[in-house]
Amino acid sequence: MITRKAGLKKVGNICILTSNSRLRYLDTMRCFRKRSAIPVLGLLIICLLFMNMYIEDEYVLEEDKRLRDTSTSRFNSDRYSPIIKDFSNFSSSINISYRILAGVPSSRKRYMTIGLSSVKRKKGNYLLETIKSIFEQSSYEELKEIVVAVHLAEFDLLWCETVVQDISRKFSHHIIAGRLIIIHTPVEFYPTLEGLKRNYNDPDDRVKFRSKQNVDYAFLLNFCANLSDYYVMLEDDVRCSRNFLAVIKKVITSRMGSNWVTLEFSKLGYIGKLYHSHDLTRLAHFLLMFYQEMPCDWLLIHFRGLLAQKDAIRFKPSLFQHMGYYSSYKGAENKLKDDEFEEDSIDVPDNPPVILSTNMITFENYELSKAYSSTEEYFWAKSPSSGDFYHMEFEKPIKISKIKVSTGTDDRQNDMLHHGTLEVGERLVGNKKGKKCTTYLRLGDFKNGNFEMEGIDRKVLFNIECIRILVTKNQIEWLIIKSISIWTAEPVTQ
């Protein structure tokens, strides 16, 4: 490696004077060749070092200033001045004056906001059907915990007025109840949408469309930041699963104590992506910063990665389905469907908080927690021996109605639990390093790698504090625990 600093060139571990410094050095040597020149040379070299450092630092500072000025000038010329000043603090809201076209933000913070951004389409309009699906697929109690925010991201104000009238006629009671808000962002707050970078060889109109969409979403996120605890993004042509909020709440509860940025409830585009509301302003800033670089669903992957969530956390079956036939981009046909969507009520496990432990040898990053979720991930261990266990310790004693455990996968069917049993326990003892129950009750054996039992609350008279999956015979094959699902019942009164 070669580095340059203060007139020196470093090759490996050897420092060599650069060409200019070498000439100065030779001139000095001629002048003082016949006398002892060591003290003078030392002083000269030190002077040269400081002089070169000063010159290089001045150049770096001037160049850095030039780049900053150029960058700022570019943003200012792009009409970004109303919002660029806020980039210094990503946790602060972007200063935008919204037009609220219908509804009033409630003073009471809800559990979840559902955000939609909509524009005028050349063919088809599915916005009213999407809003209808959200409300119809929610129970009365669930409606109390949600607010739907619709961003009409269209510069045609006549179209916006028409849509507001249609929505108000059909959903007036939801607007009055504070469950539906319609907003619009004036065009002067938008950055330039002309002459943008043509990444991925997209045509100009496609770049303009997806860049504006990023800004549309950013302004919607910014508006919704303080309306609720959680936020889920939908598109304006989506059908919802029945009682989707109840399912989402169960998933959130099951992941209490774990760090996540995004939970996904659909595998399509920007549909069914859930966030903590405290991340919304940061995400809004992020989308604005890179609005012309790539589509929003690609930017979201980078966003969660920057916040240390490497992999997607997606749940099945999907809770939201794309129903639009015509795309909002040029009215092109879009027949994309989520084949994992289920519209009817979904029997999602409760999976209460647990502390997990095992004495098996875990393979790479296929850790314990990946079995205790509804995602596509799993726990994977090297060949288990008789007596090996997967242990679950509940935070508090619970009553369980149903347990279901699946091992092995479609492509690794032999990595199932060939010989094992499932036990529940009580009287938890131990210390911070690990706890175990003093008494275990065997519920049954695994059959073909699976275990499932219902009505456990009628068979087990005590409140359960532990569950143990126990290997009862050595196996050569490795072990995949694909999923562990637990449904709770009312706790036993002591």
TrEMBL record:
Lineage top rank: taxon: Eukaryota
The name this protein goes by in its record: MGAT4 family member C
Keyword Transmembrane helix recorded: yes
Domain MGAT4 conserved region: start-end pairs: 84-341
Keyword Phosphoprotein: no
MGAT4 A/B/C C-terminal domain segment(s): 356-482
Pfam families per the UniProt record, alphabetical: MGAT4_cons, MGAT4A_C
GO molecular function, one term: acetylglucosaminyltransferase activity
Gene: MGAT4C
Pathway: Protein modification; protein glycosylation
InterPro entries xref list: Glyco_transf_54, MGAT4, MGAT4_A/B/C_C
TM region positions: 37-55
Keywords: Glycosyltransferase, Membrane, Transferase, Transmembrane, Transmembrane helix
Gene Ontology process terms (BP): protein N-linked glycosylation
